[in-house]
Amino acid sequence: MTIADGINGLYEAAGSLAIWLNVRAILRDKQIKGIHIAPMIFFTSWSFWNLYYYPHLQQWLSFAGGVSIVAANTVWTGLALYFGRKKSAREIVNTWPAIETVYPAEHIEHLWINGVEYVPKSGMPEKS
Fold first, then answer.
1. Sign of dihedral through CA atoms 73, 77, 78, 80?
2. Beta-strand pair 116-118/111-113
3. Domains of the chain in sequence order
4. Which residues of the chain have a pLDDT value below 50?
5. At the N or C end, where does the chain have fewer CB atoms within 10 A?
């Protein structure tokens, strides 16, 4: 072990803790906003590379921190891909209770989502 390995290992471990906080936030919020996935995919791939690279250099503390950061990056990226997927119009329509709290169904005649017209399932008065 060298001083450089110890310092780098601490940075890897601290980075891992920060990413685990982001994992917790995604799990709590069930969504991601304002984030582009490409940088995280890059840094996840880099963290996998480090699992090969650190042992090659015999930097075992960096490797230990790297194992944790690989796990955190992989979980975060998977959750971001899952919660960041585009919702279909059908999934949005299935959230009518949330929409009806803002716009009660009796006031909604038509709802257009991605060029498709949807009418609320309940609460719509019949037109005569």
1. positive
2. antiparallel
3. 3-83 (1.20.1280), 89-118 (no CATH)
4. 99-101, 124-125, 127-128
5. C
